[in-house]
Amino acid sequence: MSVRLRWISLCIVILLCLAGTALFTRATADDRPSTVRAIKVPGEDRFAPFAITIRVGQTVEWVNQDTDDHTIVSDDVFNTAGHRGVSVLLPGNGGHFALTFNHPGVFPYYCRFHAMLDADGQPKAPGPDGGIQDPNGNFGTPMNGVITVLSED
Ligand SMILES: [Cu+2]
Predict the structure, then answer these.
(1) pLDDT band of 21, cuts 50, 70, 90
(2) Distance, CA 60 to ligand 1 centroid (Å)?
(3) Domain extents for the chain?
(4) Cα of 111 to ligand 1 centre, how many Å?
């Protein structure tokens, strides 16, 4: 084998090793859990899912698939996961908002448009045909949700 042929062979081997490393790295990255979790507002006044559990460093993104506007307001009496004082509008037809949680704790939140109850214990804004209905037909559950943030280990 000539010196030139050896060099070419060596280069091919090195290129194959680099390609293999790139493929392996990509496969490893794809196996990791997603760092973004989605909470949707479907075509009714609720957050879905109502409760999610994430790890520190993960991001939650709310997406409004309803035609109505909604809001995300942190319930700071119980909030231990940071982002105190959050109060944002989530516009209808695709409005979205994201938060990254860097502290373990709980983040209870609600929609200020659809979380007030009237004298009969019914949400004011959704009316008798909106809100979250339980199996007994009671619409008395305001629009709210909770995120539990676990520490990294
Ligand atoms: Cu709402």
Answers:
(1) low
(2) 18
(3) 1-32, 36-150
(4) 5
